[in-house]
Design brief:
single chain; 193 residues; mainly beta; Thrombin, subunit H; four-stranded antiparallel beta sheet; 6% helix; globular
Length: 193
């Protein structure tokens, strides 16, 4: 199970001694989702990443959608169980097909014994629950900030909870915050499988 990104990008490594020069000339200066310079601390290199987007079309990625998906592999069969678009990153009012395109995702999903997959990695700041067998979206809730972190679960006195850190991500442009949000799962959901 994983959150998959399909964004074409040019990634380059430079010797650390060139960092000042690269930062001065690279287009990463605050442009959301278009470019970044990564310090790669502990290595002798820095990294630049420039996403290939069509500026004339509102910064749409040059690759064919979906750009972000939730994908599950069936280990018994050795193939995909399902792959569904995950989140939105463009306004559906402006782009009516946006719900089918998915979003860039930064974090992983978490699966429960009851057959649910929780993930909040998309830039639209929602925690979602999917059916582990079919990939059907079962539930979603807006978070107070970006959820670029993997959810976790725990039980207290027989009640199962799913918690999500919602701290946001500055480069993705999601809302920044310092929240931890908890959701109690109904008993019938915990025992559905």
């Amino acid at each position: 199970m994983g959150a998959v990104n399909r964004f074409a990008a040019i990634v380059q490594l430079y010797p650390r001694r060139q960092e000042s020069e690269v930062r001065a000339t690279h287009p990463a200066g605050g442009i959301r989702l278009e470019a970044e310079v990564g310090p790669m601390l502990g290595t002798p290199y820095i990294l630049t990443r420039t996403y290939l987007v069509d500026v004339a079309k509102g910064k749409l990625p040059c690759t064919k959608p979906p750009w972000g998906t939730l994908a599950a592999v069936n280990l018994k069969r050795g193939g995909l169980q399902f792959e569904v678009p995950l989140g939105t990153m463009l306004d559906p009012a402006q782009y009516p097909e946006a719900s089918h395109w998915g979003s860039i995702n930064l974090a992983g999903p978490m699966t429960t014994a009851g057959g649910l997959v929780f993930v909040a990695a998309s830039v639209d700041e929602h925690l979602r629950a999917f059916d582990v067998e079919t990939g059907q979206l079962l539930w979603q809730s807006r978070l107070p900030a970006g959820g670029q972190a993997t959810p976790m679960t725990y039980m207290v006195d027989g009640t199962q909870y799913v918690i999500q850190a919602a701290g946001g991500h500055a480069q993705l442009g999601t809302t920044l915050g310092d929240y931890v949000v908890a959701y109690a799962l109904p008993e019938q959901v915990r025992r559905s499988r």
